[in-house]
Amino acid sequence: MDHSEIVFGILGNAFHCPVMGEFEYLENALITVDTAGRIQAVLRPEEYQSSGIVQALEGQGRLQRLTASQYLIPGLIDLHNHAPQWPQMGKGLDLPLYDWLSNYTFPLEAKYQDLEFARQVYGDLVQSTLSSGTTSAVYFSSLHLEPSLVLAETCLDKGQRAFVGKVCMDDPDQCPDYYRQSAQQSLYETETFNHAVAGMKGNQGLVSSVVTPRFIPSCTEGLLKELGQFATANDCYVQTHCSESDWARDYSQQKYGETDISVYERTGLLGRKTLLAHSIFLTNQDILIIKDRGAGIAHCPLSNMCFANAAMTTRELLDQGVHCGLGSDVAASVTPSMLRSCFDAVTHSRVREEGTSTHRPAGERGESNTRISLVESFWMATAGGGQSLDQNIGLFKAGFGFDAVVVDAAVPDCDLTIWPGMDSPADILEKIISTTSRHNVTRVWVQGRQVIDKKTAG
Ligand SMILES: O=c1[nH]c(=O)c2nc[nH]c2[nH]1
């Protein structure tokens, strides 16, 4: 066997979800990585044992062996994260969305004109997300061009796969004077940003720009149309918020007599590379349109608990095959951890299924058969995220980018405990999803490049 194109191999136990709702346990598997950072092969013991490949790689110092306490999982994918809100995390989540945006978010985001502040915050955020196992992140930046470039450069420099958008907001009815641009300026800066990200030195596709109208209330129809035309003509990613609360849903109805999806569709903003955060109040027609266009939905469970006024219809969207992944929605959450988002997606669906009012009989309290499983949520944070982004990531499969995370149960003082003889592979995966904390994440690779190495126990 010719091993020359292999840069390194990893030997150990791995989990991934090739099929939504099912997991595969790859026991003692050998994953080899090629010069482009892609997975070259995923081999089970019976496929590599007689080939001599393990000995060959080990002899050349190109093999990493995982210990029995270490598990390899696909890199986690955060489909919705507001980078400038990182210093705001943990504040004001007992307020309604409109008050939270006006009192905390817009004043903070306006500060990013200060490039030194941007460098400091974005450096810390990207390091923290990588350290939590997030190998791909879709970021809203702020309104400003140069600080948005700082975010894109930080991701490239630290090696995170990123999709970064300069935020667009031009409607004087809803945006404060101090945090608004004209439609013309928004479009010009979006074009400039798109061009600059594509031309960043050393960017071979790791960082992409995203056309980013904040949400319907913050943009005039004219700006939405201009951005839609630009995104279509340049095959850009698009991200925005969609029908995220009663207030946001009603706003579109009052202003346009349409749903958010209908407005995005009409203005050319809905396509295969569109990511819709939240999407709580979708009509059946909206769902058909989203599915038909191949757009993706970023479900942000904890944020929804705070701001959505209702529960997400995750079960129905997954069952209908709509592209759907998870978002942390920093700072409408209390952690960037995507494994925490997985767990929150499950509890969110369970509350929906059971209902809440003690004044109603059990059978009338909730919406039956609407829960999702831990494995389904893990699929959303890995393979489902990759599918939503139309990227070959989120699985251990030949040809996919080697984005991977080592979760180590042997780090001291942690909640992830695997009991010998008591935990099946299914139990272990559920424990990883439910109890992993940041210091269990000991090694992280993005496109074959190791970006985190904590050199801890094991
Ligand atoms: O959770 C949210 N965070 C935001 O920053 C935002 N802007 C509009 N709608 C939003 N929702």
Automatic annotation (TrEMBL):
Comment on bound cofactor: Binds 1 zinc ion per subunit.
Molecular-function annotations in GO: guanine deaminase activity; zinc ion binding
InterPro entries membership: Amidohydro-rel (IPR006680), Guanine_deaminase (IPR014311), Metal-dep_hydrolase_composite (IPR011059), Metal_Hydrolase (IPR032466), Metallo-dep_hydrolases (IPR051607)
Superkingdom of origin organism: Bacteria
Broad EC category: hydrolase
SUPFAM superfamilies on file: Metallo-dependent hydrolases
Cofactor: Zn(2+)
Pathway involvement of the protein, from the record: Purine metabolism; guanine degradation; xanthine from guanine: step 1/1
Amidohydrolase-related domain sequence ranges: 71-451
Reaction equation(s) it catalyzes: guanine + H2O + H(+) = xanthine + NH4(+)
A GO CC term assigned to this protein in UniProt: cytosol
GO terms (BP aspect): guanine catabolic process
Keywords: Hydrolase, Metal-binding, Zinc
Keyword Metal-binding: yes
Functional description taken from the UniProt entry: Catalyzes the hydrolytic deamination of guanine, producing xanthine and ammonia.
Family membership noted in the UniProt record: Belongs to the metallo-dependent hydrolases superfamily. ATZ/TRZ family.
Name of the molecule in the record: Guanine deaminase
This protein's encoding gene: guaD
